[in-house]
Amino acid sequence: MPLHLTDPVIRGLPTPDKGNRIAYDDIVKGFGCRVTAAGARSFVLNYLTKSGREGAVWEVVEIEAGDVVSG
After folding, report:
1. pLDDT(59) > 90
2. Hey, where are the domains in the chain?
3. Confidence at residue 69, expressed as pLDDT on a 0 to 100 scale
4. How far apart (Å, rounded) are the C-alpha atoms in residues 17 and 26?
5. What is the distance in angstroms between the CA of the first residue and the CA of the last residue of the chain?
């Protein structure tokens, strides 16, 4: 089953014992959510430029109970 990073899925991503872990969306290619051992979440979008170079955009957010993650 493909992983789609919806609000409930993002909130339910497990916290790693140490370091961080990135879960990538299977539908929106290059989009992922990084979860740290402290429970922080940040979002990344990996992409290729026309010249074939890789790039990434990171957005750090704090998700509190009751917050809505829009997309």
Report:
1. no
2. 7-61
3. 53
4. 24
5. 21
